[in-house]
Amino acid sequence: MLHRQGLILAALVAVGLGFFGLPAQAQPFMQGPKKCQECHEAEVTVWEGTKHFASFREVHKSDKAKDIVAAVGGEKNMKKNELCNQCHYSLIGEEMKAEAGPSCESCHGASSDWYPIHNDYGGKDVKREDETAEHKTKRIADAAAAGMIWPHERYDIALNCMSCHGLDRPNVDGDTLAKMLAAGHPAKPDYELVQYSQGSVLHRFYPPDVTVNKPLDAAGLAEAYIQGAAAKLVTASAALAKSSDPAYQAFQQKRIDLARQGIEAVGDMAEAQALLTDPSDANARALVAAIKGQDLSGKVGSLLPDPGTYK
Predict the structure, then answer these.
(1) pTM
(2) Where are the beta strands (DSSP E) in 49-152?
(3) CB of 190 within 8 A of CB of 228?
(4) What b-and-e string marks burial along 142-171, b requiring 16 or more CB atoms within 10 Å of the CB?
(5) What are the extents of the domains in the chain?
(6) Taking a C-beta distance cutoff of 8 angstroms, is the pair 83, 172 a contact?
(7) pLDDT digits (tens, 9 = 90+) for 195-252
(8) Do 37 and 44 form a contact (C-beta atoms < 8 A)?
(9) What's the Rg (C-alpha) of the chain?
(10) How are beta strands 90-92 and 97-100 bridged, if at all?
């Protein structure tokens, strides 16, 4: 468990390793969306239509962005500011150059270590459709051990989302985060995984027809909602203790209250009660494992966002 948590933290800070002053060559690095596009052209095309993509050319131009940078200090250019880099940019290559906004590896982990494993279907000449079930199981596990966050691991994906959208980066001190909030940094306590994953960023192109972008079904939406609520509860609870700033605490408490509503919907489960009592990562993962494959739409359906509000 500690090893897995370490990999998640590594993925969360992969775009900001310079913040620690560590040698870039000693760490996994991003290869950039063009590398992913070699096999995932449809997914990258979706990304090119998102705010994540557009933000590379836009986010640093606003007066609000300049106010936030001034409040936290450091390099005035957002693209070179080590704090801003952690969420707003993909730092490509060992030289860690900001060449894109949040992209594939912002969610799925810097790929230099896991990419060769991810693309090996059993040998140099073995195609994806010919991969054995045994090899696929091992490939998935090995890529995850090398730092890949697979799309089906939605709780881990949600941790990435929440660390930026919840203003709770685990390696940034609370006072700095409070300064960002006070300077006008966007902070939406109602940020929720389903609403933000099933809209413009939806990219589920799976066999047998990889040309169709497949939304989650009712059971999948309910499961994703609980996975997102668990991630929000864990991250907001940890963030709450990081700063005594009243505004920052109020923001995180609102996130906690909203997350608890989701978990309470399955409160008859022992794992849900354990998470509500102790919002730890271990308890969240226990709940995520307990609900896997279950259809919770009857319990959670009324809490799901209207598809018309998807972002």
Answers:
(1) 0.90
(2) 90-92, 97-100
(3) no
(4) ebbebbbbbeebbbbbbbbbbbbbbbbbee
(5) 1-149, 152-311
(6) yes
(7) 999 999 999 999 889 999 999 999 999 999 999 999 999 999 999 999 999 999 999 9
(8) yes
(9) 19
(10) antiparallel
